Amino acid sequence: MDHARAAISNLFSGEPTSYTRFSIARQTDGDNSHVEMNLAADEEEGGEIGRPEHLHASMPPPRRNGKNLCFVIMAAALLLLIGFLIGYLSYRGRMQRVNRCLDGSGNCEMTPTASYFSDDGTEEEEVPGPRILYWPELRKMLSSKLSTAHLEANLRQREGKNSFEAGKAEDESTASHVHDQFTSFRMDDVWNDEHYVRLQDKGSSRNQVFIIEDGQEEELESPDAYVAYSKSGTVTGKPIYVNYGRKEDFQKIRNLGVSMNGAIIIFRAGKITLAEKVANARKEGAVGVLMYLGPSNDRKADSYVPFAHAHLGTGDPFTPGFPSFNHTQFPPVESSGLPQIPVQTISREAAARLFGKMDGDKCLEEWRADIMGCKVTVSGSSKMTVKLTVNNVMVDRKILNIFGVIKGFEEPDRYVVLGAQRDSWGPGAAKAGVGTAILLELARVISDMVKNDDYKPRRSIIFASWSAGEYGAVGATEWLEGYSTTLHAKAFTYINLDTAVLGSTDIKISASPLLYSLLETTMKRVKDPANDSRFLDSRFGGDWIKKVIPLDLDNAAFPFLAYSGIPVVSFGFYDEGDEYAFLGTTEDTLANLKRKTVNLYPLMRTAAEVAGQIALRMTHDHELFLDFDRYSDELLSFQEKLWHFNGDVKELGLTLNWLYFARGDFQRAADALRRDIENSDRENRIVRRALNDRMMKVEYDFLSPYLSPKDAPFRHIFFGRGSHTLKSLLENLEQLAANKTSVDVNELKEQMALATWTIKGAANALVGDIWNTDNEI
After folding, report:
1. Where are the membrane-spanning stretches (predicted)?
2. Lowest mean pLDDT across 95-99, 408-412, 451-455, 746-750
3. What percent of the chain is predicted at pLDDT more than 70?
4. Is 3.90.960.10 the CATH number for 208-393?
5. Nearest alpha-carbon partner for 5 in 53, 71, 83
6. At the topology level of CATH, where does 161-200+395-620 sit?
7. pLDDT of amino acid 774
């Protein structure tokens, strides 16, 4: 090489002013054989990098002749040929390895070694680069490591214990166990969050339900269970049965001409949450509420009384919109979602005896299938009433949320959260045990993949164990409230593991539209435990998205989506038509869960695999697996429902066109982002992060910015609660079509304006830069 340089120097006046340095530099993607050409002209004056001083002193005088020129040309050609062959052979070898990896015919370790020449001309071997795990191998690794034996051991931690009530000894003991497990998995960090909350407990004496006839009181039931956040006191009223307590059920009672003012309303469980049933009853003027469990194939279930809560919201109802940390002091305030009337649950047997006393002539045939027959109340001449006494008391308790984190190697400040409720009023095998067992198993397996199998997630994974979930996702909501200014910008998915197994024949799914595509892809790759020759997606037999059910208030994923604007997924196995009757009762034991559920532990393993694949895919890929185009479909579907009311709105001098324009803006913004992604350099971390951030904000931008999170915490226009939602706007338009004088025009105008500008704002945020926004509106 020195001879060649000398020859070139001789050719051009004796002094080499520049030369091309060849090196085989290891690239960050694992390719160790890239040929790099650097022009080293005048980098420094003298010294090691620039022109060596001794070289000038030893240079022979320039000689220009044909022999030297021929030698130089041959040397240059030889060098170019060598460089080309090295580059070609290394490229060919690398592509063969990649092809073998992609088609599954070879291993994907991608840990080649390469040789290079040092400055003194000796050949040295480069140290192998880190192993690169591709998605198919990563998916198989997760599946192979999940263990039914570990899941069973985790679930058996709850055996022989009667209660895990939030803030009490067994809940704290379980919290300590989860903390110790996270620590033993050698996670990057493990910590606790303390919250001081107001909960409601049973009083010193049991609540009671009486039947009063001819001035005589007969105790109907004195259950051990209670309803948290019920108003304490005694009320008396005539009984009225209102099926599931939905708005349409109350409308049918009104159509019968039955007054519900001052009555005690009776419901059966199901369809909507107890808190929603109570809120509907209170609007009708009811003074009290009773609820019993629906039918079950297990006759023993007729004597069970479920625990529940009646807060129409989530979190501590005495610090609405604010976190319950020990250093915060707020003036006395109560959530507007508290029921303000006594509420109690009763057994199905007690409800049957009560219905036997009801002699009214008002009848609804469509409700006859239930135990009450078709009569809905007592006759006009009957003196029978129901007396309800509730003795609940308020208590202050400290609760603990336990966290463990596996930090990402590229973007540790972006994370997916997997969470499970830990507390339960009874043994809680299905309510809290299954989710906690899956959480611990996923923490163990993914930690092992990182520590022992060279898996390096790009983004972080947080494992969360919540307390006070029975009271309405109190632990999860307080955490969200405590970090509300940052979580929406950092947490891009929440995976809820609660009640993941309540049966074996069917699957129920609730999710943000952003995660539909990922869910579909996942279910096509996870084997069905009921039939190992098929995948989970075969259970749906078609378009599974049409079977996605809305999140309810009792789901811990609800506040993540509706309050914080974080995409969520919640799923589980169940038996349609044969609900798990023990849920929320003192009979929710491991023995009953195993008796009710075929292949309990294989089902838990499958649920863990689904959740694990979602978490790993979201932290493995360069691009976040968030399908923002789905919201274009959701908005188009909403627009199609609005078309029916164009004429009614025009009669008021208004127009729906602005809503349509905003929907079009969002569609164009989504198309623009998709083009930006397709045309971008996905290997550029800065560009990739900026594009991912735009996708992450989609869910958050559907939170109405025109409302206070304190007064209207669930601000999501698709999944929230309140007059700002698209559902509420649609209901008002339906009412307008039915009776034009029944709608407040100003309220309708405001609803339309807020919906329009929220959608328009989401479109602008999706575009990214304000100079690219469409300002037609």
Report:
1. 69-91
2. 95-99
3. 82
4. no
5. 71
6. Aminopeptidase (3.40.630)
7. 64
Distance CA 22, CA 37 (A): 5
**Residue 471 has what DSSP assignment?**
G
- The DSSP output letter for 270 is B
Domain residue extents for the chain: 2-132, 161-200+395-620, 208-393, 629-772
Mean pLDDT value across residues 706-734: 93
Q: How many CB atoms lie within 10 A of CB 511?
A: 24
Percent of residues, the chain, with pLDDT higher than 90: 68
Among 398, 197, 423, smallest CA distance to 311 is for: 197
CA pair distance 89, 114, nearest whole angstrom: 12
Which residue's structure tokens are 């199905």?
348
pLDDT score, position 72: 62
In 17-56, which positions are buried (b, 16+ CB within 10 angstroms) versus exposed (e)?
Answer: eeeeebebebeeebbbbbbeeeeeeeeeeeeeeebeeeee
Between CA 292 and CA 463 the distance in angstroms is 35
Any idea which residue has 């055996």 for tokens?
159
pLDDT at 516: 95
Average pLDDT over residues 655-666: 94
Measure the CA–CA gap between 456 and 435, rounded to whole angstroms: 26
Q: Return all residues near 598 (Cβ < 8 A) that are at least 6 apart.
A: 504, 530
Average pLDDT, the chain: 85
CATH architecture for segment(s) 629-772:
Up-down Bundle (1.20)
Q: Are 39 and 16 in contact (CB under 8 A)?
A: no
Q: Average of pLDDT values for 57-71?
A: 50
